[in-house]
Amino acid sequence: MKKLLVLATGGTIASTHQRGGLAPGLTIDQLAQYFHHNQDVSVDFKVLMNKDSTNMQPEDWVVMARAIDENQNAYDGFIMTHGTDTMAYTASALSYLLHDIKKTVVITGSQVPVSFKKTDARKNIRDALTFAHQADIPGVFIAFDGKAIQGTRAVKMRTKSYDAFESVNFPYIAAIGEFGAQITFRPEPEKTVFRKHLGVCPDVFLLKAFPGLAPQFFDYLQDHIKGLIIESFGNGGLPFLTRDLVSGIEKLVQKGIPVIITTQCLEEGQNMDLYEVGKRVADAGGITAGDMNTEAIVAKLMWVLSQTTDPSEIRRMIQTPLAHDLDYI
């Protein structure tokens, strides 16, 4: 008999009508009533927190990771119920914090509370149970709308539809239905090249470039952050004429602040060597993130900065694939 541990953190799935609007309100016993499973599975339940995922913080990721790490010898798999708004960030963060885990960790939630008549929650719960029971693939995954997604590759695309998440720049892991989980892509096992570390440094900033962004903004950032992520244009380009953002990057890099460059385009990653506007960013010290999702970059940079401030080591760690986060395409 397989033993699974369900960790509840709140979210829409556990929400009820309250005075200020929908908010997590179900008790763990009420939530547990919706976890119908086969007789060959034993399921335990534990409350970690009871938050709308908008209120989730990096420190909460560490609490979640520790709860799984401390129990990984006692259970065959884990399911976490979580709000959808920051679920992709949590999935990425747990992928790094638990990068050496040998068990399946499944995160799920819903667009509509589980107690409502028309809800996607009950199907997602069933699918999470099925995948956690059958998949036997180590790592962190999101189970949602009949699909399993690698934790570092999930992006929330829709605010209302049941198919809220997509796998970006990476195949779906499984199709899940009432008759079981059909594995459609089994990632190759990774060699562990990083040490285990359950910590994060939240002192990062995510900046979306736009025409007209003032380079003086970088002067403010250099005194308030330890790492910067820029969602650039296209293949990694940023302006160097009129409003010169490239010089701002160079100043931050000279002060020892890593600047990670990603793209505002969701699919196909980036190539900073293709155009002059990207090559100048690379020459200024910008660190390319290839085909990583922004959610994964945020979580990985926080995890890396909690371990080192050495610029060359930060670059190496960011650009080394981990939890299948990088360089699939």
Main attributes?
four-stranded parallel sheet, Rossmann fold, 27% helix, 16 strands, alpha/beta, elongated
| Tally of DSSP β-strands | 16
Q: Assess the beta-strand content as a share of residues.
A: 15-25%
How is the CATH topology of the largest domain named? Rossmann fold
Number of domains: 2
Main pleated sheet: 8 strands, mixed
- Radius of gyration (CA) equals 20 Å
> Which segments are poorly predicted (pLDDT under 50) over 5 or more consecutive residues?
none
Shape: elongated
Strand order of the largest sheet: 4-1-5-6-7-8-11-12
**Average pLDDT for all residues:** 96
CATH superfamily of the largest domain: L-asparaginase, N-terminal domain
CATH class descriptor of the largest domain: Alpha Beta
Report how far apart the termini are: 39 Å
Binding site for substrate: 53, 84-85
Enzyme class: hydrolase
Family: Belongs to the asparaginase 1 family.
Protein name: asparaginase
Question: Could you describe the 3D structure shown?
Answer:
It comes from Sporolactobacillus shoreae. Residues 203-317 form the Asparaginase/glutaminase C-terminal domain. With 329 residues, the protein is of the alpha/beta class. It folds into two domains: 2-183, 3-Layer(aba) Sandwich (Rossmann fold), CATH 3.40.50.1170; 204-319, 3-Layer(aba) Sandwich (Rossmann fold). 27% of the residues lie in helices and 24% in strands. The chain is built from nine helices and 16 strands. The chain has helices spanning 28-32, 58-71, 87-97, 121-134, 217-221, 245-254, 276-283, 294-305, 311-319, and strands spanning 2-10, 15-18, 21-24, 41-51, 77-81, 104-108, 139-144, 147-150, 154-156, 165-167, 174-177, 180-183, 204-208, 227-232, 259-263, 287-288. The strands form four sheets. It has an eight-stranded mixed beta sheet, with helices on both faces. The protein has a four-stranded parallel beta sheet with strand order 13-14-15-16. Helix 2 crosses helix 3 and helix 3 crosses helix 8 (294-305). The longest helix has 14 residues, at 58-71. The chain is elongated. The mean pLDDT is 96.
